[in-house]
Specification:
mainly alpha; about 40% helix; two-stranded antiparallel sheet; 6 helices
């Protein structure tokens, strides 16, 4: 390949990545097999990923990606999930033990709370990514359909991207904290039992202190 051809590709690829990324829903759900929407966009641009791996984008997203990449549209790959209306996380606050693991897993800071205090989800910020489900040791988080049912919109994606980037900047400013979380936090049964036992011990201590 000539130097001129290499230079042309180098100049074109970032623009293509930006165009692909702009079409993705920015839920940062990792269902596509990549750690975030930008990484998936890069993989599509350089041919490492197919255009049908994004369940939140669904059929409309696949058609849009096909139009700018020149690839034929194809059905959503079921290995990555199914297309569905927007869902948001809801925490059963009575069962929450305040472990903060869901807060750490949320890519857009849609969960608020503090250690050993109940957490709650900001529904207007939640992208429905499901990443808060695996780390919860109490299984007190459920995903519920937004009412009235609706699809994820381009404006939703814009706001989600802003929150995701703001989170990355905030984490990067804290020494010793990774700027990006590239995997879903998950716990073994033993780890869950340890967290639950510790929470129960704290609850007993609080009751005993009130009774004395």
């Amino acid at each position: 390949m000539s130097d001129a051809r290499t230079s042309s590709l180098s100049a074109a690829e970032p623009a293509l990545v930006d165009r692909i990324d702009a079409l993705l829903p920015q839920t940062q759900c990792t269902k596509c097999g990549y750690p975030n929407c930008r990484a998936y966009a890069e993989a599509i641009a350089d041919g490492r990923a197919e255009i049908n791996q994004c369940p939140p984008g669904g059929a409309a997203g696949i058609a849009a990606l096909a139009a700018i990449t020149g690839r034929p549209p194809r059905p959503l790959n079921p290995a990555h999930g199914v297309e569905r209306p927007l869902r948001v996380a809801v925490i059963d606050e009575a069962r929450c033990i305040g472990c903060t693991l869901c807060i750490q897993a949320c890519p857009v800071d849609a969960i608020v709370g503090a250690a050993r205090r109940m957490h709650t989800v900001l529904p207007d910020h939640c992208t429905g990514c499901d990443l808060c489900l695996p780390p919860c040791p109490m299984d007190c988080i459920t995903m519920v359909d937004v009412q009235p049912p609706r699809r994820w919109t381009a404006e939703d994606a814009r706001r989600a991207r802003e929150r995701y980037l703001a989170r990355q900047q905030r984490l990067a400013a804290v020494p010793g904290v990774p700027a990006a979380r590239t995997e879903t936090l998950s716990l073994s049964a033993a780890q869950r039992q340890t967290l639950v036992a510790a929470a129960m011990q704290r609850a007993r201590a609080r009751r005993e202190s009130r009774d004395t």
